[in-house]
Design brief:
The chain contains 7 helices and 6 strands; from the N terminus they run ββαααβαβαβαβα. With about 210 residues, it is α/β, with parallel strands linked by helices. The radius of gyration is 27 Å and the shape is elongated. The chain starts with a strand and ends with a helix.
């Protein structure tokens, strides 16, 4: 078992807790991390791009000129895709870009990202992050104590004061441990867990 230090809100060491080797000794697999990030972003994609086909463009109900005798190429509608302001051929239509990635692939990608953060010494475990009131000022003070310029703060969703205190601070994202994903882990320099969130996530990844 690996050991991780648990700190208080002022940065003083309180104790050590075990970190499962299955998670933090997992090898760095760039291709797996890449697949997990692409999957997450594809699932978040809105997919609302839309163009009109010739049947949807307004006008063009009358044949522009007679079929023969004018010397011009035959034409049936001014809304043909060949014409300016005509319909679009094979253009995009609203659709879903989402697809499923195997559960084990997602889990292993997260393990890989977490082990990278621990190896780079950019992972902190705080005993508790309980704020008396939801104040951004308290959140800024906490970040200043630890010199955290970019951080993913992980706790349980019922700690509302923490989430409200941090939500407006740039480059800082509070998140419930159940929603931790590879993209957010890599998008922030520091990972900051509360002790209970850390233990809950480790149990989930075993």
């Amino acid at each position: 078992m690996l050991k991780v230090q648990v700190l208080d809100k002022n940065g003083k060491k309180i104790k050590e807790i075990s970190a499962p080797k299955k998670v933090f000794s997992y090898p760095e697999k760039e291709h797996l991390i890449f697949e997990a990030v692409v999957n997450l972003r594809a699932n978040q994609r809105y997919g609302a791009a839309s163009t009109k086909t010739r049947s949807e463009v307004r006008g063009g109900g009358r044949k522009p000129w007679r079929q023969k005798g004018t010397g011009r190429a035959r034409a049936g509608s001014i809304r043909s895709p060949l014409w300016r302001k005509g319909g679009t051929t094979f253009g995009p239509k609203p659709r879903s870009y989402s697809y499923n990635l195997p559960k084990n692939a997602k889990k292993n990608a997260l393990k890989s990202a977490l082990s990278m953060k621990l190896a780079e010494k950019q992972l902190l475990v705080i005993d508790a992050l309980d704020f008396e009131k939801p104040k951004t000022k308290e959140g800024v003070l906490f970040l200043k104590n630890f010199n955290l310029d970019s951080a993913l703060i992980i706790d349980q969703h019922n700690n509302k004061n923490l989430f409200l205190s941090l939500r407006n601070i740039p480059k800082v994202k509070p998140i419930d441990y159940k929603h931790v994903n590879v993209y957010d882990v890599l998008d922030h320099k520091w990972l900051v867990f509360t002790k209970r969130a850390f233990e809950a996530l480790m149990e989930k990844l075993r």
